[in-house]
Each structure stands twice: as structure tokens, then as C-alpha cells.
Amino acid sequence: MTTQTEFGFGTQIRKSPYFDATVRWGAKDFSVYNHMYIPRDFGNPVENFWNLVNHAILCDVAVERQVEITGPDAAEFVQLLTPRDLTRCAVGQCKYVLLTNAEGGILNDPILLRLAENHFWISLADSDVLFWAQGVAVNSGLDVVISEPDVSPLQLQGPQSGKVMQALFGDSILDLKYYWLREYDLDGIPLIVSRTGWSSELGYELYLRDSSKGDELWEKIMAAGQPFGLKPGHTSSIRRIEGGMLSYHADMNIRTNPYELGMDRLIDLDAGFDFIGKSALQKIRQEGVQRRHVGLVIDCPALTGSNTRYWDLENNGEKVGEVTSAIFSPRLEENIALAMVRADLAVTGTEFEVIMPAGKATARIVEKPFFDPKKTLAAS
To answer: pLDDT per residue over 60-86, tens digit each?
Structure first.
């Protein structure tokens, strides 16, 4: 561990309950997500990737803020926010959902957790959904209470994460199914544990329900994980792009609709419930989309980091799209990317010229995800 250094831009950017622990364990750089610091650098990102796919990493993702929805009409209200049919979402189950506005644009792509019949958490990507939900509630006529609880998740991800969890919680954790949750008390630390994560690997999220226990929880997990090669880490851009996982504000935003992303499975227009954006999405389904999200391989020397701006894609000298996320995969030994392109060109094998800061290169559409397309690792 390294000597602790003071970080900060002022009190308007919040620190997580694990902030001091991550600095002790070597966090070198942070960015801001949902008005909070998130560790982005524990050293070499390639080493972080190999730690993730070969062993396990522990990530501070307390920036995944929870919007808590309770009250007699909580289930009806949550359904109003998303086009995904939640009628079969059982207590104790999690669902990946999209939140849409009246135009069918995506406001967020959170994990929904159902803790009780009328008790939900929306575990957020980077956007102010708390304000949106409270605003919708004012005019909904539904009896709900919407707040941000004292809940801060950690992600424990990688093939050895199950063994670390078994060391912490015993054999009972082994039958926790993919996208289900369970309540635990770990030596006085109150938790919700789910079989979810943002890595495309076997993994768990531990939702701490008492911020005063953050340092204790971090150290307890790191100690339990030492025999299994657990390292402190950060969410891996390499692995998430390999897995075709989308990042809000990078690969989609409020001007993106689910059909452009090929997320038709998350839209239930013909079910007997209403939701915000339903009429807009019905129109989009009928008329079709003008662009689609695709996977690319870029033929150029290995990229030394991820893109910090969108790169134009040209076809026959005409701009027809843009690269949204790009990285070099040391496992695949290729530059892989996610991109939004004109719909008529969104066909496997189509070639483009990508305009990068270092110059032009050739890119072609390939199938995505780039690795483990059936998500067998995460669901194992």
C-alpha cells in the first residue's frame, strides 16, 4: 500500500465510504461520476484487465447511486419509467432496464433491484434520475416515496470472485443465481449482495447500507481475497468493450433510442401497460431507424488508451457515423471499437475510414460482443 495523498476539488464532489481505502491501496487518479469521485487508475490498465480476467478485482462503484422507490404504488410507478415488462420481476430479482423520456430517448440504463413487493432500487449509470423520478411522481397520481438512500456498492469481479465470496459468506452464497439478490449481515455490516456487475465476468455487487462501515468492509474483502489473487482495481474499459457493454454518455445518451442499439428485447410495446415514451417508440418501430450501433475492428498500431472524443467514420468520403468507444484488446490482439453508423451501412464486413488524432485508418464491422458473446462467464 502507498502513503495516503489528499485529493479533492471541494465539498461539492462527494467522496465514497471507500475513498480513503482506495487511496491507501494505490488509487492514483479519479474522475467524477454522479457528482462523486470514482477511482480510474490503480496503475497499468492492461495489468488491471489481466487481474480481472485471471483472478479478481475489487472496485469502488459507490457512484452507482440508488434511487429508492417505496409506497403502495411503487411497482406501478417503476413500470411507468421503463419499457421493459416487469410483471414477472419477482422479489429478490434484478433486471437490466432502460429508462426513456417522452421522445423515446434513453435517460439511463440501470439495474433494477426488487427488495420487497413495493420496495425498489434503481442502480444508476451517470445521470440525475433522482430528479427525473421525483418530477414524474409529482404528477403521476401515485402514492410513492422517492429518495436516495445511504447505499454504496462495491464490485467484486473475476473468475475467483466466487471463492472470495464463499470465504466471506460461507457456502450459502454459492446458490445465489445470476441477476438475483440476497440480504446479508457480515459481522455487523448490513449488505444487499447481487450476482451482477459491469465486467462481463463472474461477479458480485455488495451494496453497503451503512456508510460508516465502508473502510471496514473494504479491508475485510481484501483480506479474504488475498489467497485468491484479489487486487484493488477499476472498471475495465478493455473488458467492457470486449463484452459489448455500453457506457452511458459514451455509447448512448438522451438522443439515442433503444432500437438504434438493438435493444428490442427490452421494449414491450404490445404488453398491457403504459410507460413514458411508449407512443414515440411505437412510431420509431414502425418507421425504422436511421442509424445503428455496431462493433468495429480498426486496422492500425495498438491504441495506447481509450478515445477521449468521438472519431468520425467516413464511407466514400462522406461522414456516415462515429466511433463511440475504442481500445486495444491485449487478449484479442486487435483494436476493437463500438460505433454508431448509418443504418444502411450497418452490415458485417462494411469498411470505413476512421479519422483519429494520429491519422486515418481502415475499420470494418464485425459481430459483437467481441469475446464470450453468450455471456457464459458472467452467468456461470
So the answer is: 999 999 999 999 999 999 999 999 999
Q: What are the residues whose beta carbons fall under 8 Å from the beta carbon of 332, sequence distance 6 or more?
A: 242, 370, 371
Dihedral angle of Cα 71, 111, 234, 47, to the nearest 10 degrees: 160
Q: What is the CATH number of domain 19-63+150-241?
A: 3.30.1360.120
- Residues in Cβ contact with 166 at an 8 Å cutoff, skipping those fewer than 6 apart: 173, 174
The CATH number of the structural domain formed by 290-380 is 2.40.30.110
- pLDDT, residue 8, reads 66
Reduced 3-state DSSP string for 328-344: EECCCCEEEEEEEEEHH
Q: What is the CATH number of domain 66-137?
A: 3.30.70.1400
375 contacts: CB under 8 Å, gap ≥ 6: 200, 243, 369
User: What is the rounded CA–CA span in Å between residue 247 and residue 289?
Assistant: 21
Worst-scoring range by mean pLDDT, 1-5, 228-232, 244-248, 255-259? 1-5
So where are the chain's domains? 19-63+150-241, 66-137, 290-380
